[in-house]
Amino acid sequence: MSINNLDQLYRSVIMDHYKNPRNKGVLDESDITVDMNNPTCGDVIHLTLKMEDGIVQNAKFEGEGCSISMASASMMTQMVKGKTAEEAVKVAHIFSDMMLGKEVDESVDLGDIEALSGVAKFPARIKCATLAWKAMEKGVGNDSDQ
């Protein structure tokens, strides 16, 4: 597949998650609630997580922001469901490395998240892409306090 076709595919995946977000809403019976914002651009995320025995049973988000921010939140909520807190944080670290243009462990299936790899070329957009991930890390890292 040519670079142009791959870029177009990635753009399509991002726009699909933006226009048809997965897991949009608020969990009524959440264990964890995290609100974060990106003051440089105005992106806002409200993340709710349901944990059971250290495993993310469900994840939902609400927020306002650019297509990158909202698509990333949609992808993140899909990715962390069914993962332990440690596994979710590990994927968040891999995602962060990808955003910084670092080599990532190719044995980890990133699924749709790989579509955001091009954001690394635009430093001003990295905070947009990582906002939901930072919220999730904060939440599962503090889940015993919530």
From TrEMBL:
Q: What Gene3D superfamilies does this protein map onto?
A: 3.90.1010.10
Looking at the record, the residues that make up the NIF system FeS cluster assembly NifU N-terminal domain are: 10-128
What CDD domains does this protein's entry cite?
A: IscU_like
Pfam families referenced in this protein's UniProt entry, alphabetically: NifU_N (PF01592)
State what protein this is by name. Answer: Fe-S cluster assembly sulfur transfer protein SufU
User: Source species, please?
Assistant: Sporosarcina soli
